[in-house]
What does this fold into?
Amino acid sequence: MNPPRRLPAGLSRIRLTRLAGVFVVLLAMTAVPAADAAFSDSASLPTTTISTNTLAPPTNIAVSQSCTPPPPVVFRGASSNRAQDQLTIATPVGTQAGDVLVAQVANRSGLFSGLTAPSGWTLLGRTNSGGQVTEAVFYKVAGSVEPASHTFGLVGSSGVQMAGGIAAYDGVWTVDPVEAFGVRTGASATASTPSVTTTVANTVLLHTITKRQEDLPAPAGTTPRWQVYSGTGTATEGATASDESFAGPGATPTRSSSTGFNSEWVTHTIALRPVPGTPYANGTWTATPSAWATGYRVERLVGGVVQLTGYLTPVSATSATDGPLSNGVTYTYRIVGYYQSWTSTPQTATLTTNC
It folds into this structure.
């Protein structure tokens, strides 16, 4: 067996030096921190390789409201009657559930001890003029089944003349049917209705007139609904009702009627509120300057809870519409720009609907 071969002394030193250099390189590579070792070019940014860019948010976000108008208030029908001490008025033919009924109940003389009304009727007002004539106005929302008639009775009267009627309307907001209400009294040949101020558009005005010893015709500019005369001789009165559409909002016109006979009178104007319009939200913003983004994620929140999420492209889009919405609700809209899994910081705007 041959003895081991020894390297020349100089060559051994050279090889050992080279091996030591390789070991140092390997040691330096393994000493790189894990985060740096894992760093790689971004595959999410289409315009850069290694970048510190962020996806910029859209700016100047704003939300405004638009309203789709509801159908108009429509007269459904009317009925009237006259009597003593107790006035029974038929439910207008064609009345349907959800219609709003308005009743005029007039009596000769004063207020007596009161006036009874059937269940479900709300008194708007009852006014006397000069101790000679009295007029009350009621309203109610028709139920699924309405009685054939409604009876209003004076308390403590005997042989007192009464007159009046009921009008039914479709398309009135049942939550708050009466937008405005006014009363006026006088003692003259001409009876004039009060002007009221409305805050919503497209109301219907019902005008009522009670006058001692005569029944006045419907005022010019209105559509007559009833004209009833009650009694004989001097202990008599008349009850009249008519209506008109009022575009509004604002102060309503005063309507007048006369036959030339001086006597006491009471008039009312009742503005019926239409069903509110349907609100929509119209959002606008300035597009993100990060033109490489895909588009926008838009969220609708109520009370901090996300109700709806949608995506909008392209990134140049600067507006969107959301609806139909509900009236009287505060909505928050949150918008972010996005590209794949990247998102910008959110921007928000708030809208409280009121059509």
User: Anything to note?
Assistant: The two ends are 109 Å apart (CA to CA).
